[in-house]
Amino acid sequence: MDAPQGFRRSWLHWFTCPSCAHRSFFSYSAGRLGPDGKTIAVDYWCASCGCLCTLKDQWRLPAITLLCSLALFVSLYWLMIDGLGKPNVVWVLLWIACAVVGVNALLFLIGRFTNQYVATNRSEP
Ligand SMILES: [Zn+2]
Fold this sequence. Notes:
Layout: E1 8-16, E2 23-33, E3 40-45, E4 52-55, H1 60-83, H2 89-114, E5 117-119
Antiparallel strand pairs: 1-2, 2-3, 3-4, 4-5
This protein binds zinc ion.
Zinc ion (ZN) binds next to loops.
C-alpha cells in the first residue's frame, strides 16, 4: 500500500496503530492546518490498515525534541571549547558524532515509551 499524497516517511520514529496494533520503527506523517486555521496538527498514516491517527499529546514530541536539542547544543559547545584547544581534533569530531547519534537514539527510546496514538475520524485524504 502506497502512502497518501503529502505523507512522508520518518525513520526511527516509533509508531503503533491504534486500530490494528501494527508496530513499526518508522512512521508516515503529514501536517495540516487545524480547524481554527492557526494551529498545525500532524496526522499519521498506518501502512498496514490505512487508517489515520494522531498523537494523543501533540505537545510532548516537540517539547522533548527541544529539551534534547538544548542538551545537545550545550554538550557540543562544551566539546568545542574543551577540545579545540588540544592538538587532536579527531577526538572532537568523534565525540560530536557520538553526541549526535546518542541524542537520536535517546529521542527514539523516549518516543518508544511516550508516543501514544489515537484514531482520527477523518477519512483518508
Ligand atoms: Zn493500522
